[in-house]
Amino acid sequence: MRLTIPVAKVLAALLADPEAPRYGLDLMKLTGLPSGTLYPVLHRLRAAGWLAADWEEVDPVAAGRPARRYYRLTGEGVRDARLALAELRALAPEGGTSRGGAEPTGAPAW
Amino acid sequence: MVTRRLAGLLLRTAARRWPVELRAELIREWEAELHVLAEGGERRRMLRFAASLAAGRAGGPVVDRTVLHRRLRHTARVLLLAPPACVAVVVLAAVVMNLAYAVLDVRLTWATAVQLPLWSGLTAGAGALLALLVTRAARRTVRTGPLPTALGVVLPIALTLTVVLAAFAGRGEQGLPGTVPGLLLWLALLVPALWGAGTLASRGRTRLAWAVGVLGALVAADAAVVLAVVSAIPAPPVGPVADGLPPDTVDRVSAPLWLLTCWTDSSLGLPRPTAWERFLITDRVLVEPVFYLACTPYAVAYAVAAARPAPATEPAPEPVPAPA
Fold first, then answer.
1. TM spans, by residue (chain B) (predicted)?
2. What average pLDDT does this structure show over B171-184?
3. pTM of the entire structure?
4. First vs last C-alpha separation in chain B
5. How many Å lie between the alpha carbon of B321 and the closest alpha carbon of chain A?
């Protein structure tokens, strides 16, 4: 998995609460990424086995809206994402300043 | 209502750029998110959401740049080396044919009749082997759309022909300009044949893709031979033959068979073209049909192999409980 800045942002957002399932709009809000960037990242993470997705179990008629798809890190994803982000932080210059949102948002939970 | 429709249109446009097997689920997911935004009356966010997806890149696995560059180099090697290999196939087959003819001529009275079929047969066999090699190589080439693939096959052939014709022209060969229209027509018609084959192969219809590619390439080659013959040899005049000698004309009625005539030196049991017409045709168009025969297998094989859908990489989703 090549760790681009959008990938790091998504991983950091998911690691903030690894047990919490997140849907697309939720992740867009947490990461600040547009949908056109977010969904390809989610697809890559799923293809790598880091991310699981499933459909919300609701009755669309009763809920008055269609079921949404939720994402959550897999066990392997939690472990590998923590390692990858730690390596990324180790590469960052000491005391470096934030460069226009180039760093992952949200506080990773490790 | 208009916003919802416009957003839906953008979503469908976006989905078309994703792998086929993912589209239905993605549209379902995106429409569910749009519904949430619509309920909140967030029209601008709806449009931004859909427009970003439509403008963003599709979600394939990100290819390492070194891998991509390696694939590009591999693709260039395959596509640029295949046409010169076809020229080599034609020349080698001609050399073998001449050696065989020298042996057969002292033993068989009909040795002359097997010259062209032998040349064509050897060329077709070597062309098929080249097609096998190219098909294997196509597994590691860059995947693009059917039209760029067709152009990627045809343009190097055109380049090779230009180099070969320029080399012969430099030696003072006569009659080269007469070959150009036929070659150009063949190249022009080969593009839609390969395009069609690639399009069908990309939809998983491999057998039909092969059929369309081979038939289209045959039509392209036949049309090129017909153009070369028609532009160089006149049709027979109406009226009696002067001096009882066969005229240097070719009756157009047998035109669709001229490609096969060039490959087999035969009329396939039909009254036309006559033996004299066969001589005139093969005297005028000798090497080009054999070159078409050498190129066709690999060109169609590459168009089909490069367009076939890659295996799906969609992971099996793990169950995730819905939030309360």
1. 78-104, 116-135, 147-170, 182-201, 208-233
2. 82
3. 0.60
4. 30
5. 7
